[in-house]
Amino acid sequence: MSSPPSLATLLQDETRRYVRSYRSASLCAGLTSRGEHHVQAFRGKGTPPPDNALFSLGGLTQVFTGALLGLLVEQGKARLDMPLAEVIPRSLLPDADAGRITLEQLATHTSGMPHLPPNLDAAPRNPEDPFGHYSANLFGDFLRTYHPQLPPPRPVSESLLGMGVLGHALSRRAGLNYGHALRDLLFTPLKLSDTSARVTDELAPRLLPGHTARGRPVPAWTFPALPGAGALHSTVPDLLGFLDASLGRADESLSRPLKMSLLPRTEGGAVRMGLGWSISQLRGHTVAWCSSVMGGYVGFIGLAPSVDAGVVLLSNHGWSLLAALRGRVPLEAPGFALLSRLLAETTT
Predict the structure, then answer these.
(1) What DSSP string runs through 286-300?
(2) Residue 100 lies in a domain
(3) Residue 2 domain-assigned?
(4) What is the C-alpha end-to-end distance of the chain, expressed in Å?
(5) 183 is in which domain, residue-wise?
(6) Closest among 315, 321, 292 to 215, alpha carbons compared
(7) DSSP assignments along 205-254, one per residue
(8) How wide is the angle at C-alpha 82 spanned by C-alphas 77 and 87, nearest 5°?
(9) Are 187 and 195 in contact (CB under 8 A)?
(10) Model-level pTM?
């Protein structure tokens, strides 16, 4: 009977097509299986990046916003059913229906908030940094004038704005800004020293610049008023540590709220929502995952709790429909393939 393939072999097998399609992309990939880690960097042409290269997480930030909600619930500083009216002053959020939106509804994309701020174009914007101009003043203007068309909850509909509102609300409950709250409650206890909302002078040399799908360099996106929607940066080793904690490999005071964020909280459909996580069935097992295509970066993280395993894929090339039509696949494809292989290898 042949032995199962190593984690290194799994990574090479399932990322080969992506690397061949995006020849100038830098891809960092990692697997955790029962606490064993393997990290590998790839590049179709040129030298691969270091294993600890720093990437913008973009939309992957939302799982950390969901984690922050769970951590504040664990500490008694928030409730899943806490309405915004208990967090944001009436002078800033005067509409009664808007005030009834709960923290859980924001975390599960059932708040009914639009995907993007309606007043995103109220000030001159840079198309290469579309949220960089969206200030605290514009955010406050949105809250003061927001009137939901229908009261919450609503069917699942992804809202980048809703995640930004959730990050703001959680900052108020924590008494710290978004990045500092995560630093103190999660990153420092888990020793995730390369994960931050701000690229420090120490981290900057390891930040890989983002690119379009065709390889043109693009500036990083910034989120001054909506950090909970996409402001974090991290590395594959740090994200594997976060996945391990979510699988129970951390102090109970951290693992308990992180595992809580993986529970499905919406009904119906092939994909249900946890706190920032999408929840699906794969090979008869429940998997939690999140993917992002934002600015010049693409990312995928996934967990298979039943087999104590997880996947991290980070690339510094964006994705486009044209690229897909040419056979270039986003990181969801190899991400799910790796989760499937991990499930198959550990359940046979």
Answers:
(1) EEEEEEEEETTEEEE
(2) yes
(3) no
(4) 12
(5) 7-346
(6) 315
(7) GGBPPEE-TTS-EEPPP--SS-HHHH--EE-HHHHHHHHHHHTT-S-HHH
(8) 70
(9) yes
(10) 0.95
Compute how many other C-beta atoms are within 10 angstroms of the C-beta atom of residue 206.
16
Other Cβ atoms less than 10 A from the Cβ of 90: the count is: 10
Cβ proximity of 223 and 231 under 8 Å: yes
CA-CA distance, 291 to 125, in Å (whole number)? 26
CATH number, domain of 230, equals: 3.40.710.10
Residue 1 lies inside a defined structural domain of this protein: no
Domain count, the chain: 1
Question: For residues 125 and 147, what is the distance between their CA atoms, to the nearest angstrom?
Answer: 24
Judge whether 198 lies within some domain: yes
Three-state secondary-structure class, residue 32: strand
User: Which residues make Cβ contacts (< 8 Å) with residue 88, sequence separation at least 6?
Assistant: 99, 143, 168, 169, 172
348 residues of the chain, pLDDT tens digit each: 344 578 889 999 999 999 998 889 999 999 999 999 999 999 988 999 999 999 999 999 999 999 999 999 999 999 999 999 999 999 999 999 999 999 999 999 999 999 999 999 999 888 889 999 999 999 999 999 999 999 899 999 999 999 999 999 999 999 999 999 999 999 999 999 999 999 999 999 999 999 988 889 998 899 999 999 999 999 999 999 999 999 999 999 999 999 999 999 998 788 999 999 999 999 999 999 999 999 899 999 999 999 999 999 999 998 765 655 555 558 999 999 999 999 998 665
> Per the structure block, which two tokens stand in for 252?
């109970």
Helix (H) or strand (E) holding 272: strand 272-273
Residues 57, 300: contact at Cβ < 8 Å?
Answer: no
Pairing of strands 285-294, 297-304: antiparallel
Angle at the Cα of 184 from the Cα atoms of 255 and 253, rounded to 5 degrees: 20
CA atoms within 13 A on the CB side of 211: 15
Q: d(Cα 67, Cα 302) in Å, to the nearest integer?
A: 15
